[in-house]
Amino acid sequence: MDQHHQSTTTNSAALTLTTPLHCIVKLGGSAITCKNELETINENNLSTVSSQLRQGMILGPSQGMDWSRRPGSLDIPTVVDEVDDRLASNPKKFLVVHGAGSFGHFQASKSGVHKGGLSRPLVKSGFVATRISVTTLNLEIIRALAREGIPSIGMSPFSCGWTTSERNIAVADTSTVVKAIDAGFVPVLHGDAVLDNSQGCTILSGDVIISHLAEQLRPDYVVFLTDVFGVYDRPPTEPDAVLLREIGVREDGSWSVLQPKLQDTSRQVEITVAAHDTTGGMVTKISEAAMIAKLGIDVYIVKAATDHSARALKGKLTDDIPDGWLGTVIRLAK
Amino acid sequence: MDQHHQSTTTNSAALTLTTPLHCIVKLGGSAITCKNELETINENNLSTVSSQLRQGMILGPSQGMDWSRRPGSLDIPTVVDEVDDRLASNPKKFLVVHGAGSFGHFQASKSGVHKGGLSRPLVKSGFVATRISVTTLNLEIIRALAREGIPSIGMSPFSCGWTTSERNIAVADTSTVVKAIDAGFVPVLHGDAVLDNSQGCTILSGDVIISHLAEQLRPDYVVFLTDVFGVYDRPPTEPDAVLLREIGVREDGSWSVLQPKLQDTSRQVEITVAAHDTTGGMVTKISEAAMIAKLGIDVYIVKAATDHSARALKGKLTDDIPDGWLGTVIRLAK
């Protein structure tokens, strides 16, 4: 995604959270959907991730909150009588943003929603079709989280009134998100088709939403759940790819690999060169994460539904990174 | 529903529509769902209503905008290449609000969401479960409208940041709705679980939303689609029930039946007495409609998916009510 950030000076007075936000989690599209199968959820991963999120929140016994029929099923969940009012707990505050994966991309790219031009029927149709697809995914994620007892609330950026201008965030008032968190809910936002003041419409990506929310809400840390162990120095499918364990970000936003010590200094150069790659790969991800780390917020990029993601979600990495942990930490260089 | 109105003085500066809003349509829960079957859509009615809406909007040839897989199906709609950019038209502006029917009610009533108390796990669970159910219905309605080529956009009152205070609307900014209409979309709102400043949470009903939007956006007329021919002087299942054809509303909000001339004046009295009925029946509906009619906006209450609803949606009743038309007109008495 080639969207850029700008300071959101147009954002109206932000509400302050009563209890600080503990963690923002990005559910990467590749981690929770089957990338090469249109509109197919990776049910196993989504279920494990939901369970790990519940443990990270310290939610206590699971109380299913999805009382709706499953698509195609006549069975009615009858969990309602099991809810025990004595079980009130004080969980840590989480916020979730998810990508699109195999939802939305097909519709958006077929119609060119990101390029704008809502007066064209094809673009308008694609806008509607994209929102149908991404909100379908959002609803399925809400239901998976609710089945784990996470009080999740779907919130579409479009409905929240978020808009862009020249594809940068123009208005993204977080007061409704703040109110939902304060009321004890876990808002679940997503990459969405939105209105753009200059070109009519565009796609607001999940990663841009994460950066904006991290800046506004200042969580203790941010976790990106993905389908590989972290950030590599080259495509992880290549045999000599090296997992970057720690990336240090300086206050001017520049960054360098701290762990492992790359023997070959040309590696560092390759990573810099790859910054010109526009496919939204590794370097885009590092740049987005560096924006957040610059604020003093640790970022963990980790493979979803593994012991490593479980540790990251529990906040076990904030003091010290254990040797056995696989993933990428991106944080302010000391 | 025993919610009451108050003037929404807390509503922030309303944006003005570039093109006036032509019509607000209420899709009654009883008209588009099977009332006695949990979470079951009345597919035939919904499909016919969608088609009638398209005709009312004067949308031109149908261009399917739902490019997603149907639940349980592997088929991918391949309508994308059929979209013809030359077919740009200038349809009339519509806005849709739907009720819950057999979606949401079960979850809301089991947990008492309308009575508030979010600190109780049962209420919080019910809030999440209610929103899952009503947004599932919303998504299915969006898809049905999109299949007809109506550029529909789901907008949940919760996500729009709408809140209540003592169960009356406190904040319900319509600027995002206005922007969506101006961009050529048909916003589709719904009765929703929302946060309440005084009691924590409540249910904001579709009828209250309609009144608020009618007041703010001043459509030419409002159509309530329901499962009976209109408003009767007694439950329509009773053999001597009389369809009230025309109700006149005075500027003080009081109303009386103009057509048919009720020979028996005690009938009029019975209707007034029934106002004490709290089941949200006929008189509640008349009162809500009278609030709108008082603003000079005609209200038609009509059976969904009939020739009568088709006429109402096309705006064929604004000058003269044809003899053959079955339904109830509620308007300012001249």
Automatic annotation (TrEMBL), chains A, B:
It comes from Scutellaria barbata. The gene is IPK. The record marks 35 as: Transition state stabilizer. Signal peptide: none annotated. SUPFAM superfamilies: Carbamate kinase-like. This is Isopentenyl phosphate kinase. ATP binds at residues 26-30, 101, 227, 281, 285. Keywords: ATP-binding, Isoprene biosynthesis, Kinase, Nucleotide-binding, Transferase. It catalyses: isopentenyl phosphate + ATP = isopentenyl diphosphate + ADP.
